[in-house]
């Protein structure tokens, strides 16, 4: 088999895996590729070019608005790069009710109408029944993340294949209790395209380090620093069955317990929104402030979670939440310092993995044992998940009410999934949690950033406990 890359007449290079997928005309196609392989890019090319040639409709169904918009932009790029005239771009707004979250989601479908009658439509599709009336080819993006394992969506959409249209499912692996896993596991029934990072590198894919220099798979894996994530995202290994670390009923109970308690929220965009006296009420709270800081610079959110002692039965209540987006580290440290200096008994933990290392070392130097840098490597991430699980299981953590504008906090916590393997046990015999982060449907820019800041605050609350309460999950 040739491993050479092929450059099209318009100067776009497809590697061997992309070539095979692009050329596939099978009725049902399944694409399981590692992260950043170019799944959406190749899919957009396939949809646009076929729509031009066949004059048929292609529907690209995503779980979220962000994913739908990103795919649509690639479709536009392909249409214009191919020199094709776009007759019209149509947008249609609609609402979908999600019973799981008791939430109405506002979505926007976007459509490219091409010369000759072909169409490419990108739309969020949380509700499978909304897809029942589609007539055309359908592509599911990140199908492994779809609600209820994707079975309901597959049941509604697959009949299109009986009318001659194509159904394509694309994703990086998630749990085994999904329709995507079932599809990938049946290459005799479906046309399955599989490519992990090792095959990509053999085909010429170049990995680069933090300075942009070429690096090896082993070095890149060390930079990633997450063994479970590496197996799933880059080696395309399906983990065990996944379910939510914290049950929705537990989050509802936490929100009910927090009803009537004070809560302040602040979102800072770049340099805008911060006021130095934001934490002024912390000086008068019962007990000590307990602070967790999940660090991010661009893309994801930097989240600061501050608990006080107002929770029921001696538990903790989320008193302050600060979300920082695209903020310089100097400003982020100023926000953390303001919280820590508000009361001499304040304690905190921060994400010292990667980008957060320098800032957390600085905070530890300033506050000593009151501030703990936490590297998410090794079993520490499992410990954080265990502490989070225990706090909500035991009713020790309360949240703002669900019927407020802050339901996104609960959905962020709910987005952490767990897969506890019986073979993955620590020296104490306890099962080590394997955590999987999924997207927050109400706050798509968060990658469970709020949830991990909560886990760090809970850890801070146990900093002086003996024994620590980090291994209560079994």
Which bin fits the share of residues in helices? Answer: 25-40%
How many structural units, i.e. domains?
A: 2
The CA-CA distance between the termini, in Å, is 47 Å
Output the structural class.
Answer: alpha/beta
How many strands in all?
22
Uncertain runs are: 422-426, 466-474
User: What's the rounded overall pLDDT mean?
Assistant: 86
Number of helices: 14
CATH homologous group name of the largest domain:
P-loop containing nucleotide triphosphate hydrolases
Strand content: 25-35%
Quick structural summary:
The protein is an alpha/beta fold. The protein is built from 14 helices and 22 strands.
Describe the protein in words:
The chain has 474 residues and is α/β, with parallel strands linked by helices. It folds into 2 domains: 6-233, Rossmann fold, CATH 3.40.50.300; 243-461, 2-Layer Sandwich (Nucleotidyltransferase, domain 5), CATH 3.30.420. 30% of the residues lie in helices and 26% in strands. It has 14 helices and 22 strands. Strands 5-6-7-4-8-9-3-10 form an 8-stranded mixed β-sheet. Strands 14, 15, 16, 17, 18, 19 and 20 form a 7-stranded mixed β-sheet that branches. The protein is globular and about 70 Å long.
């Amino acid at each position: 088999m040739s491993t050479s890359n092929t450059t099209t007449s318009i100067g776009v290079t497809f590697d061997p895996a992309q070539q095979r997928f692009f050329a596939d005309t099978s009725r049902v196609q399944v694409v399981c590729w590692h992260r950043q392989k170019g799944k959406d890019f190749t899919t957009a090319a396939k949809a646009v070019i076929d729509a031009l040639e066949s004059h048929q409709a292609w529907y690209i169904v995503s779980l979220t608005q962000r994913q739908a918009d990103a795919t649509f932009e690639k479709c536009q790029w392909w249409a214009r790069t191919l020199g094709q005239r776009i007759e019209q771009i149509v947008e249609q707004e609609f609402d979908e009710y999600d019973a799981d979250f008791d939430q109405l989601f506002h979505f926007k479908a976007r459509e490219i109408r091409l010369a000759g009658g072909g169409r490419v439509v990108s739309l969020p599709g949380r509700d499978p029944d909304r897809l029942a009336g589609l007539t055309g080819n359908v592509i599911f993006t990140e199908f492994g993340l779809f609600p209820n394992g994707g079975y309901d969506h597959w049941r509604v959409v697959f009949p299109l294949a009986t009318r001659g249209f194509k159904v394509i499912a694309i994703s990086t692996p998630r749990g085994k209790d999904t329709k995507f896993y079932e599809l990938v596991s049946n290459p005799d029934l479906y046309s399955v395209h599989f490519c992990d990072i090792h095959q990509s590198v053999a085909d010429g894919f170049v990995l680069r380090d933090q300075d942009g220099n070429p690096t090896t798979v082993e070095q890149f894996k060390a930079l990633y620093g997450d063994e479970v994530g590496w197996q799933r995202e880059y080696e395309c290994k399906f983990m065990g069955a996944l379910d939510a670390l914290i049950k929705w009923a537990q989050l509802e109970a936490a929100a009910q317990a927090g009803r009537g308690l004070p809560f302040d929220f602040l979102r800072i965009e770049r340099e805008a929104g911060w006021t130095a006296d934001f934490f002024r009420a912390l000086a008068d709270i019962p007990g000590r402030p307990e602070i967790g800081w999940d660090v991010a610079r661009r893309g994801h959110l930097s989240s600061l979670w501050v608990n006080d002692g107002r929770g029921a039965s001696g538990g903790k209540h989320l008193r302050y939440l600060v979300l920082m987006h695209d903020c310089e580290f100097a400003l982020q440290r100023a926000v953390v310092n303001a919280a820590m200096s508000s009361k001499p008994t304040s304690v905190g933990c921060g994400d010292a993995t990667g980008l957060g290392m320098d800032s957390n070392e600085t905070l530890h130097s300033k506050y000593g044992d009151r501030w703990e840098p936490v590297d998410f490597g090794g079993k520490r991430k499992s410990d954080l998940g265990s502490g989070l699980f225990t706090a909500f299981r035991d009713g020790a953590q309360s949240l703002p009410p669900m019927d407020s504008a802050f339901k996104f906090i609960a959905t962020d916590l709910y987005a952490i999934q767990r897969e506890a393997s019986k073979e993955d046990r620590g020296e104490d015999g306890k099962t080590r949690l394997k955590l999987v982060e999924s997207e927050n449907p109400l706050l798509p820019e968060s990658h469970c950033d709020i949830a991990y800041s909560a886990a760090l605050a809970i850890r801070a609350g146990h900093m002086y406990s003996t024994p620590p309460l980090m291994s209560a999950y079994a």
